[in-house]
Design brief:
The complex is a heterodimer of chains A (120) and B (183). Chain A has 120 residues and is mainly alpha-helical. Chain A has 4 helices and no strands. The chains are: A mainly alpha (120), B mainly alpha (183).
Chain lengths: 120, 183
């Protein structure tokens, strides 16, 4: 028991001496330690910035891609459908047995048909 | 976002002086000790800052002790080369077992004599520096830093049994070195 007490006392002495030594570091060493700590902490900010820098380019590429895709889909899909409809009409004309002159005067024949309808 | 930064800064501020003193007693060199502390802080912040806060201390001391061990290895290789080039046999070669366990302070000052001069603090530092590295590390982590046996084992990468053995031996050596001052 006495031995244990002595041991605890001895440890207490050593610990307090070490604590005192740590507290009484010279100003220059303490300042250097502070600088080291700050530069270690700065890594947190710089790594966040680095992450943003790394992600910035892919993010911009994705946004640009989405914009281009949206423009392409909205602007070019409708004319394509209309163009397809015109092509079908042209095909119909070419495939029919009628004389091509008839199609040249198509407006006249339509007017004639309407007038006859009104007359009747 | 700023909370983890603040917590890390607080933690580093709380351990920086002790870490420096541990490294200084182990290496005996201020610049080397500052480099070691810097390394340990940088690695902790870079790799482990997202770990739970209660793990920072054992992790930090693990990195610190690894750096100190690395320094010992490098300097023991340097000493070996120097001894070989000088054609003398080093003291280290004559010691048995793991050389890291037997590396002592090169100053070779007798702690008892220093105590007689009333420089208690110097005597303790000298006695601690005279301890073999593993005993010194165990003593500092267990009895000064207050890590548990398992935390110390984690920091030192050894078994809990080894920590207990090193602690007991360190305590015995220190008591016999400083018996003139504290019986």
């Amino acid at each position: 028991m006495k031995n244990e007490e002595q041991e605890t006392q001895f440890m207490g002495h050593v610990r307090s001496e070490l604590d005192r030594e740590a507290q009484n570091l010279d100003i220059e060493t303490a300042a250097r330690l502070k600088r080291i700590r700050y530069s270690a902490i700065e890594q947190i900010d710089s790594s966040r910035f680095k992450l943003w820098r790394l992600l910035r380019l892919p993010a911009l590429a994705v946004v640009t891609g989405v914009i281009i895709a949206t423009v392409v889909i909205t602007d070019y899909r409708a004319p394509t459908i209309i163009q397809n409809q015109h092509a079908l009409a042209d095909l119909e004309i070419l495939a029919s047995d009628e004389q091509l002159n008839l199609f040249d005067d198509l407006e006249f024949y339509s007017w004639l048909a309407e007038t006859e309808d009104h007359a009747s | 976002m700023g909370d983890d930064r603040l917590a890390m800064e607080k933690f580093l501020a709380s351990i920086e002086r002790r870490a420096f003193l541990m490294a200084k007693i182990a290496t005996g060199d201020v610049d080397v000790s500052l480099d070691i502390v810097q390394d340990a802080m940088f690695v902790l912040v870079k790799k482990y800052r997202n770990k739970p806060e209660h793990q920072w201390k054992p992790l930090f001391y693990r990195i610190l002790q690894n750096r100190i061990r690395d320094w010992y290895r490098r300097s023991s290789v340097r000493n070996r080369w120097r001894t070989w080039l000088n054609g003398k046999k080093s003291d280290e070669d004559r010691l048995e077992g793991n050389p890291l366990d037997n590396i002592a302070d090169p100053s070779g000052e007798n702690p008892a004599r220093v105590v007689m001069r009333g420089e208690v603090s110097k005597a303790i530092m000298s006695a601690l520096a005279k301890l073999p590295l593993r005993q010194h590390q165990t003593f500092m982590l267990r009895f000064w830093e207050g890590l548990s046996v398992s935390e110390t084992a984690t920091a030192m990468r050894c078994s809990e049994g080894a920590v207990k053995t090193h602690s007991a031996r360190a305590l015995k050596s220190l008591r016999s070195s400083l018996e003139n001052h504290w019986p």
